[in-house]
Request: fold
Amino acid sequence: MRQAWLLFSRQGFEATTVDQIAAAAGMSRRTFFRYFTGKDELVLTRLVESGESVVEAFRARPADEPVWTSLRRAFDEGVVQQEAHAALARPLLVMLRTEPGVRATVVEWRRRWQDLLEPAVAERLPRRRAGSSPDVRAAAIVASALSCLETAQGAWAEHPHSRLSTLLDQAMTTVTA
Amino acid sequence: MRQAWLLFSRQGFEATTVDQIAAAAGMSRRTFFRYFTGKDELVLTRLVESGESVVEAFRARPADEPVWTSLRRAFDEGVVQQEAHAALARPLLVMLRTEPGVRATVVEWRRRWQDLLEPAVAERLPRRRAGSSPDVRAAAIVASALSCLETAQGAWAEHPHSRLSTLLDQAMTTVTA
DNA sequence: GACCGTGATGACACTGCGTGCCACTTCTGC
DNA sequence: GCAGAAGTGGCACGCAGTGTCATCACGGTC
Reply:
């Protein structure tokens, strides 16, 4: 992982071959593929582990708080982390947005967060008498919130003097207004 | 394109090789790559062309209408199209959600729509005195709306007896509520 | 100390994607 | 008829990812 991220930051994601990573880590190409499904997974695990506790943060919010507010607060921990390590976080975010080869991984990351948050959000929504059409409310809320987060992160990564928390506030209040 | 989609629907995206597509279309592999950047592009062009007119639809809405409502209405044309050709649209959506290899293409599609819609939405928002932080309002709104669309489409694809327009209404009203 | 399973490792071969290079054909204008 | 341009296909290459098999180190057993 360490060697891979060194190479990524120096050469970019696409330009780094599995051979290089394996060589730098002192193992064969074949062995690399025994531990990781591919280069993608190196990115994914980092993304996931960097924000595993969002759901707990959400669940810890008072039940009578508006869901949207709880989500905003649940993002706070990650936001603080990123602002604290801006020097590392910004280039990473830029890479995620510019390198086409990583796009699929970002989707996967989104899907994981979606799957984690959706049931937690669903619990907080008012019961709906089971009609014929499926209930998309929780999914829509979570997906939109994640969109706001991504949007804010993207803008923050590209504007050195901006504050992530401010941008996220702006994004999330605009949508519900 | 036609041959490719025949193969995709029969074997799935991943399982279809470029050789097969090229052979089915009566051309060499090399020639295929002269016209398309890869299998992805076959999917992407189909997605893009299937909804090129959303921006016009949005721009045609009255300027004093709430932006969120205008977006909902702008999606209408595509929604109607999909419901009319549900037999084709549903399997396509399922493929987009299940086949990992197409994920990157979906992101690209999203990005295109985002780039198209964002400036149009920005025009409709109240002016904001140019502060230090960048303006993410339009980006956040569009991204959230697209999330709602994707969410609704996903649910619709998986629930045969549901109506896409109903699901989209439910998704979009929930977020702003 | 010799023996044997077990698991980790690495070498090799193979499929598939995507690209660069070059030869060949066809079409077009002079 | 001919030169040039454009389209086409063959070949070779690098890279991702997978299956197969040999090798090697380890711990326990006799």
User: Anything to note?
Assistant: Residues 103-124 of chain B form the longest helix (22 residues). Chain B has eleven helices and no strands.
